[in-house]
Write a structure and sequence with these properties.
By secondary structure, the chain is mainly alpha-helical. Helices cover 42% and strands 8% of the residues.
């Protein structure tokens, strides 16, 4: 999705903490300016405007110790937590959207129950690896598989940040999309189910399950 483009690129390029902070700031700026009219085209327009009209400097994070100092609560994204650790880590809102299934907007279903961008990306990947081109349905399933793998790798980074205690939580209600949720505009929470991660962990570590 267009609204995850900046963070996705930053993660793929293995940005350091200061660069991730800059990417987070840029992603927030784009999300605000494209709210209600989000698409890859509006995202590119906003990026072009920023490049041509503003100087965009790196955020000076200083030492990473500012995030791990004792006596404080640090709220941080999974991307930015890479390379850091804490005694106690809390990860809330682990809904059944984690790992995510790719979602097809209603307006993009004219070709079928998949998005053209993901199918095209899968076909290009197959071509570059000298593989036979998949059907649109197979390409969509492959894109889903790769997306879930990406989410699980990121989640692994998050849960391995804890040294003493890891607290995972799922809520009964949550926003449909976090990056578009605005409680001031009356956006409502929706019923939410727990991530399949919980059942997988219970099966893997039954000795830790309390009734």
């Amino acid at each position: 999705p267009h609204y995850q483009l900046i963070n996705y690129l930053a993660d793929r390029l293995n940005y350091q903490s200061s660069e991730l902070a800059t990417a987070d700031k840029l992603a927030d700026r784009i999300a605000m300016q494209t709210y209600g009219r989000g698409s890859i085209y509006t995202t590119i327009e906003v990026l072009q405007e920023i490049v041509t009209t503003e100087g965009f400097e790196n955020i000076d994070d200083g030492s990473e110790s500012r995030y791990t100092a004792s006596g404080q609560v640090t709220i941080i994204t999974m991307h930015k937590a890479k390379g850091l650790d804490w005694d106690y880590v809390f990860i809330p809102f682990l809904s059944d959207k984690i790992p995510r299934q790719l979602w097809t907007p209603q307006g993009a279903k004219f070709l079928g129950d998949f998005t053209l961008a993901e199918v095209a990306r899968a076909k290009i990947r197959a071509h570059l690896h000298h593989q036979s081109l998949p059907t649109p349905r197979d390409a969509w399933e492959l894109a889903n598989y790769l997306k879930q793998g990406e989410d699980l790798r990121l989640l692994y980074v998050a849960i391995t940040r804890a040294k003493k205690l890891l607290w995972l939580a799922s809520e009964q209600q949550a926003p449909f999309l976090w990056n578009r949720f605005n409680w001031q505009q009356g956006d409502r929470l929706q019923d939410s189910k727990p991530s399949p991660l919980f059942s997988a962990l219970c099966k893997k570590f039954p000795q830790l399950v309390r009734q």
